Amino acid sequence: MKKTTRFRELVNAPELLMLPVAHDGLSALAIAEAGFSALAVAGYGTAGSLLGLPDIGLLTATEMLTHYAHIVSRVDVPVMVDIDTGFGDVNNVIRTVREAERLGAAALFIEDQTYPKRCGHMAGKSVVTVEEYLPKLKAALWARQDPDFVIMARTDAAAVHGLDEAVRRAQLYAAAGADMVFVEAVTSVEDMRKVNASVPVPSMANMIEGGRTPFLSAAELQELGYAVAAYPCASVFTAVRALRAWAGHLKAHGTSAGFAGPDTMVDFEEYFRFIGAADIREREKLFFEAGKKQ
Length: 294
What we know:
Oligomer: single chain
Largest sheet: 8 strands, parallel
Number of helices: 13
Strand order of the largest sheet: 6-5-4-3-2-1-8-7
Number of strands: 8
Radius of gyration: 21 Å
Structural class: alpha/beta
Order of helices and strands: HEHEHHEHEHEHHEHEHEHHH
């Protein structure tokens, strides 16, 4: 089955799709190893991983798409990607959508913030008018080659103009053909329920530890009517905590010997297996042994 078809099935299934967000190839491998059916890659973790900087629109389309391509090619599960505001006008959106399809993504989302954008839970956001966003959304829908490739419309209007405007936009985006909608930074359970009661297509919740949206379990989100729940920050939050602990210990003690252990670090052999090196070594034997027979 195509990954696009599989992702669409997962979105439309009765059970909520938990969508952890990877920030690099290692985190993607860990998510896939844990047994998740799909994952995502987005600007927040990508900016932190590649640049060591916040998600404020600094990444170029080429940087993001190259990063996504590495992750998509490394895991077998469907991957949804983030194309921010589309990196320009409708022509940029068309090119970006086609590149995302070409690299093997199963889905993407495009948002209605002004450029440069900000993380959805940061203060100081602004959004473009509906009249400016809709041509981009329609261009994205027109550009896709595979009809199963899922395109989600994101609105950040709730934090700028209030929930009613965000819901109005989500309805307009769904009417324009978006397969899914994502109303970002909803601040109460009541408002989350209202979003899902108001839009005719599947919607996504964004679960950020310490963010503006109530942090709920998968079961609670499903009861509220969500089809998908993304977890965009946890991988980088976890990585930063672990890396700071290791670096601090090494600086303080001159060795990581007292830090290493089953709860803090994998060892050389475990990493060798996790990263796929053992499988690669076995694969190499097929070719070397075939060469000896010639």
